[in-house]
Amino acid sequence: MSTLRTLLGIRRPLLGAPMAGVSGGRLAAAVSRAGGLGFIGGGYGDHDWLVEQLELCDGQPFGVGFITWALARRPELLDLALQARPRAVLLSFGELGDLGRRVRDAGVPLIAQVQTVAQAIGAAHAGADIVVAQGGEAGGHGGWRGTMALVPAVVDAVAPLPVVAAGGIADGRGLAAALMLGASGALCGTAFYACHESLAHDEAKRRLVRASGDDTVKGPIFDWLRGIAWPDGPWSLRTLRNDSTERWGGDLDGLHRTLPEQQKVLERARHCADFDIAPVIAGEAADLVRERRSAETVVADFVQQAARCLGQPWPTLL
Ligand SMILES: Cc1cc2nc3c(=O)[nH]c(=O)nc-3n(C[C@H](O)[C@H](O)[C@H](O)COP(=O)(O)O)c2cc1C
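Predict the joint structure of the above. Result:
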């Protein structure tokens, strides 16, 4: 059975998560330059944006991640991604089905990000080469299982497939813990959100650097406000708390009744970067993101700290 290292051709066991609107070509390239593999976040499927970001990878290896149910509505974007020769395609949130088959037929490693053990088994049967077990601590959409218990359960369920841990991992201690749980590496989003190369707004980065995981909350509010109709499933969106989550968290009926009006409020807030109203999408690992740095520094610190935790010299940490 192939290892994470041989499948992806990486030197460090760290993947930069696909993050819609946040992880573009520059961030993906920076993570890869540091020895991991960075993923462009194909998100909800903007053709021109994806073309632009694929061109920014600067000759570095990269992966492309898609939200599966959104890609199913614009399957031509998968051809676009595959033509750019990614090291891997990562599909999250939905059945792999025909999209997964097309990735495999192109000879590109297929990564499935899952939130439950049952989904992991389904992904293995559907031909995934690597499974990302994503705990509910994650920023963005995620499930309810905690990373600590989910990862070893998925490792056991899909052995000998390589498993990558995600959700709440933002420094070398978390990476070391993931490896001890049987994962072959970690996939991290929140850790890279405030990096110089990330496309997040400066003010959003500033807020994340000051935030704690205590300040995050999960719910459907921002999907409704953004008009994104997520299909039913074991997932919901984790963001920092703000006026919107405080106002509507306990009054979803009220939000539903006044939705068109509130959607305009959100649109205006996004336009003027008012993050008291607009979302900062981040996970419980917010406590561990304390400054804005280059992605290369983040990867180097991650791996050096993990090596210290595990008592192994850094070059052998894979
Ligand atoms: C800002 C942000 C946007 C995200 N967007 C996506 C996405 O478009 N597709 C996806 O599969 N996962 C997305 N995620 C989830 C990541 O793939 C990953 O599971 C998560 O970041 C891992 O947890 P962590 O944030 O604690 O590192 C996003 C996460 C963040 C923080």
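The mean pLDDT is 96.
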